[in-house]
Recover the amino acids of this structure.
């Protein structure tokens, strides 16, 4: 587990960038904005070191993106059907740094809980061609993936959205858009180890009173969206998260509308809450959303 000093060092470049943007540098603004995106997404190329291959039954295909900058951009996706034909379907949205190959354990846990899972890499991650992602582009990618979920699962009462870490902010934005458009609805939202907004997340790590939220151009402003989504919400956080303080999930829970549930996993860190609290996680999902137990 990284020390407090190392965590602050990790976020220091982001603070310096925020200061430059805040004073309104007349030159190089586009370069600064790109550097901000590089620091936020922090993409690790290639397969995760612990990835040993996709399991039997998991399918791979590509999803077109209507608003892509070029025709050769698409989303590389994994589709893992459930054993039960009437199973609910879940869209999996991952966080920063690692691509799909680092998500297999969490995806497997969700599949074991009874979900058919569609998981994507955003453009610029893994095998999804594209330039450095932005807040706007990952929101577009989530919408394109949701269109495929609707095709795979025509029953709106069996469509769910899941987001981990930064993916939680992307999931909240998607749920907010669905609620406002009143089209292709979802039955529920699950977010894990996520934050209220990007500025607050950076501010918490670097321990500064500067108004980072208003300085950064990539907002990921979940706290201002979650009250408007009007669907059941499960919010999960490990009590020992070393990157994103658990209080952010508590604040999101307070802002969300009922029905909702907050699950704090004792001893859970940023990545292992679904493993450590697997039984409580599964119970919360099936109770809140009224789903049958897996089997």
């Amino acid at each position: 587990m990284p020390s407090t000093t190392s965590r602050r060092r990790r976020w220091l470049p982001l603070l310096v960038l925020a200061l430059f943007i805040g004073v309104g540098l007349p030159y190089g603004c586009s370069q600064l904005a790109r550097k901000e995106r590089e620091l936020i997404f922090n993409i690790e190329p290639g397969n995760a070191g612990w990835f040993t291959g996709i399991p039997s039954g998991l399918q791979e295909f590509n999803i077109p993106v209507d608003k892509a900058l070029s025709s050769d951009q698409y989303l590389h996706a994994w589709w893992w059907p459930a054993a039960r034909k009437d199973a609910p379907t879940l869209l999996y949205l991952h966080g920063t740094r690692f691509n799909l190959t680092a998500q297999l354990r969490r995806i497997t846990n969700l599949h074991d809980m009874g979900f058919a899972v569609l998981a994507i890499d955003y453009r610029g991650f893994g095998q999804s061609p594209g330039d450095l992602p932005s807040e706007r582009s990952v929101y577009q990618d989530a919408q394109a993936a949701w269109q495929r979920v609707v095709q795979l699962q025509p029953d709106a009462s069996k469509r769910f959205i899941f987001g981990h870490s930064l993916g939680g902010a992307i999931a909240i934005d998607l749920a907010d858009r669905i609620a406002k458009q009143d089209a292709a609805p979802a039955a529920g939202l699950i977010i894990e180890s996520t934050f209220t907004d990007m500025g607050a997340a950076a501010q918490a790590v670097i321990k500064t009173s500067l108004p980072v939220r208003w300085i950064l151009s990539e907002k990921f402003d979940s706290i201002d969206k979650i009250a408007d989504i009007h669907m059941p919400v499960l919010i999960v956080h490990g009590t020992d998260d070393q990157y994103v303080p658990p209080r952010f999930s508590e604040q999101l829970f307070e802002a969300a509308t009922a029905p909702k549930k907050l699950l704090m996993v004792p001893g859970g860190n940023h990545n292992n809450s679904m493993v450590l609290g697997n039984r409580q996680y599964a119970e919360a999902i099936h109770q809140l959303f009224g789903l049958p137990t897996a089997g």
About this structure: The mean pLDDT is 89. Residues 58-197+225-289 form a domain with the Rossmann fold fold (CATH 3.40.50.1820). The longest strand covers residues 74-80. The radius of gyration is 18 Å.
